[in-house]
Fold PKP2 protein.
Amino acid sequence: RNMSSAGPEGRKKMRECDGLIDSLVYYIQGAIADHEPNDKATENCVCILHNLSYQLEIELPESYAQSIYMQRRNISSNDKTPGCFGTRSRKVKEKHQDTPLPEEKSNPKGVESLWHSTLIRIYLSLIAKSTRNYTQEASLGALQNLTAGTGPMPFAVARTVVQKANGLPSIRNMLHVSHPAVKKTAVSLLRNLSRNTSLQNDIAREVLPDLVAVLPESVPGSDIACETTASVCYTLYNLTQSSSHNARLLLSADGLPKIIAISMNDSNMCIKASRAASVLLYSLWSHTDLHNAYKK
């Protein structure tokens, strides 16, 4: 667990270690099967996998990167983007979102396991069943890492979490735990998931009122609460930017007074959150059909 925090070279060596990732996954599967999701070794295993999934898309060996992205290159042979990970434009993001990954291997080995649906379901199972905060946070954090990029892999993982594995109820429950780091990581994961336009309505329907409930009545005092609040605002921005219906959902959940209060903070206590709330307000105002409802 300590060694998996040793930076890019340490992660690379551990990912390449024959049988290591497979053994960690095997142990966690056994713990879940034995109804022991709270044991310390399971926590350690999940924390290692969390660390090994950090910047995975960027650090993948060229052979994996080529096989994952070959399909996209074949579909869009006119795309002049240099390299696999170079661009972050909206157009390319949307193209990635529509491009499926090559068919999953039924029996993944080593680094392939890190983004496989089997492990995604294991993380969701631990989020639902474990009561250890570190295990919950590491499971959420691993999913956050896997959904953090802009290529087809993060969007495929996001689709698995939301649509194939029905992960939103378990993630939603983590918004209401008392542990601030778990809550913050759950919000960060939802922020990543909400970038996927095809999932936004599902996410809004399932968790938008809960996200509003997480928002404080005024500017939060602690750094972690400040970051969580900013992340909630940006998630709500993603969910409502292109959807008047979702903006109305936010209004129905009494989100507007909270967002206004956060945005009006003029101290340096939590400038990140007040800026995020202001961006959200500006976006909400673009839905002209809701102006009368806003004014009321």
Q: What stands out?
A: The chain has two domains: 1-65+105-176, 196-295. Residues 223-240 form the longest helix (18 residues). Residues 71-96 have pLDDT under 50 and may be disordered. Residues 196-295 form one domain.
